[in-house]
Amino acid sequence: MPPDLKDSDNRPLLVWRFEEPVRAIASGPYGGGIGDREWVLNATVDKDYARLDPDVHIVELAELAGLSGSGVGMLTAVDVRTACTTHDEGVAATATVGLGYPTLAAAPPDRAPGIGPGTINLVVLLPVALSDAALVNAVATATEAKVQALWESGVHATGTATDALFIGCARDGAGEPYGGPRSTWGARVARAVHAAVAEGTRHWVERTSPGRTSPL
Question: How many CB atoms lie within 10 A of CB 204?
Fold first, then answer.
């Protein structure tokens, strides 16, 4: 399902409202973990965002957007109206890509860049049920596909220090046992995420560095 674009607190945000709760795994500052979720929001914040209670802020934004129940919230300095959504055989992936603070996950402490709210946020939805193990596996698959897209785009980084993701699937059914990149549904997750991040990276370069073909 496509997200709704709303305005809350004078900032754009994307909202997914599910007709039925989905089984999800998420790393957002609000609602992260594994469990049933009724909504997701991805909200734009200022580039100098300094609140130390993002979970409380997300609750405030959710209330302004009319959301209630169990949900997941993510924040980004990227204008979420630039979100890129791709599909692959039933899987939908939406990415908001900000690369102002790219980083290598295992960078030495003295060479690690500063932390900023640029952020790559991912929302991935599947029409089938996954086991909890497959959901965890799908997180690794989506992350690998994100990194592949970045490197192929000339971004020598594994992401940013504030990346977040949400993967949601159907609750009913036996549950697919695997979510790796060579499993049926894991492969679809990988391709959808790869395409969304690659497209989002191209758009970010066009917005921030006109005339350049790569951000780095």
Answer: 23
DSSP SS3 for 12? strand
Q: Which CATH number is 105's domain given? A: 3.60.70
| Residue whose C-alpha is closest to residue 58's, from 50, 45, 47, 46 | 45
Whole-angstrom Cα distance, residue 127 to residue 44? 27
Domain contains 196: yes
Q: 85 in helix, strand or coil?
A: strand
Q: Is position 216 within any domain?
A: no
Read off the DSSP letter of residue 128: S
- Per-residue pLDDT reduced to its tens digit, 90-101: 999 999 999 988
Number of structural domains in the chain: 1
Tell me the per-residue pLDDT of 15-46, one tens digit each, with 9 for 90 and over: 999 999 999 999 999 999 999 999 999 999 98
Domain residues for the domain of 72 are 4-208
Q: Which residue in 158, 122, 129, 95 sits closest to 26, CA to CA? A: 122
